[in-house]
Amino acid sequence: MPENAASHFDPDTFHRRLNAHPSEDERGDHDLNPGTRPDGALRPAAVLVGVVARDGGPTVLLTRRTDHLEHHPGQISFPGGHAEDGGGGAEATALREAREEIGLDGERARVLGRLSPYVTRTGFRVTPVVAALTPPLELTPDPHEVAEIFEVPLDHLMDPANHRLGTRRAGGAERTFYAIAYRDYDIWGATAGMIVDLHRALSAPPHETT
Fold first, then answer.
1. Tally of CB atoms within 10 A around 200
2. CATH number assigned to the domain covering 11-203
3. How far is CA 46 from CA 24, 92, 135, in A?
4. Claim: this prediction has a pTM higher than 0.85
5. Where are the beta strands (DSSP E) in the chain?
6. In angstroms, what CA-CA distances link 73 with 147, 196, 201, 205?
7. What is the band of 9 on the pLDDT scale with cuts at 50, 70, 90?
8. Do residues 96 and 111 touch, judged by C-beta distance below 8 A?
């Protein structure tokens, strides 16, 4: 990505780069596993990719899901959920779900743009909404959905050296996924794929699409 773009987080620069070439081109689990895109209608959803302006350097807000959830139990994820009829679009969905899951005050969030929709093997079409989050953040996890809230340095997530490929059995077959390790956290699957897409969006020359 552009030199120092992660270390010196400038929301205006992020906004320009994210909106330089808005695209509805899908990304998804099927990028690494051709022929596995779900058939039929996809359920719309949105997640909030929150970049926190910390004095020690920007971080990205993530959660660990509780182990009893139907979809992606125990996995690392962005706060988010399925869209509701009349819910006001992806941005409103992402902010609403972040409030419900982690108690995020929408007044602390400035929406910067979207990434390409991400299709999951479980049949969701997820719109990642990128937002700048301004501390202080008084967060409280919903104990039904969120086991833990934590932050990862943006520098770490935007370093391509940390973007590895791994394999797991999912849906009865061996699947390839992006994976990013950080301390004791294993960030993989759709969440890691969206992080890799954020890197693409921020590092692409202005005249190129992501």
1. 17
2. 3.90.79.10
3. 14, 9, 23
4. yes
5. 27-28, 43-52, 59-65, 76-77, 80-82, 109-114, 118-119, 124-133, 146-153, 164-170, 173-182, 185-188
6. 10, 22, 28, 37
7. confident
8. no
Residues 65, 60: Cα–Cα separation, whole Å: 16
SS3 content of the chain, % helix, strand, coil (to 5): 25, 35, 45
Over the range 160-187, which residues count as b (16 or more CB within 10 Å of their CB) and which as e? eebbeeeeeeeeeeebebbbbebeeeeb
Residue tagged 């869209």 (tokens): 83
State both tokens at 172: 């009865």
Which tens digit of pLDDT belongs to each residue from 18-53? 888 666 789 999 999 998 999 889 999 999 999 999
Q: In what order do the strands lie in the sheet with 164-170?
A: 164-170, 173-182, 185-188
- In the chain, where the domains are located: 11-203
The residue assigned the tokens 């007044």 is: 107
How many residues does this entry show for the chain? 210
Tokens standing for 157? 């997530």
Residue 107 is predicted with a pLDDT of 95
